[in-house]
Write a structure and sequence with these properties.
- With 92 residues, the protein is mainly α.
- The chain has one domain: Up-down Bundle (Monooxygenase).
- Helix 1 runs parallel beside helix 4, helix 2 runs parallel beside helix 4 and helix 3 runs antiparallel to helix 4.
Amino acid sequence: MNPELSNLLGYPAAFLTTIAFVPQAWQSWRTRDLSGISLPMYALFTSGVALWLGYGLVIGSLPVIAANAVTLMLASVVLWLKILEVRGGARY
C-alpha cells in the first residue's frame, strides 16, 4: 500500500478510536461511578492496547504508536479507578 494512503487512513482512524475513550475516562473520573464497567474486560483491553503500542514501536508506525499511547493512558485511568472501586470503594 502506498505510504501516503496508509497515513491518510491511519491518522484519522487513530484519532477517532482514541478520542472515543475521552468521554468514558472523563465520566469515570468526574462521577467515580464505574458500576457499568467490567473489570476483566478493561484489564484485557488495557493489556491489548499496551501490546498494540509495543507493536507500533516495533514496526515504527507513528499512527499506531500515537493512538495506542494515548488510549493506554485513558484506559489505564478507567482501569485504575475500577480497581480502586473493586478493592472496597476506596476514596479517591
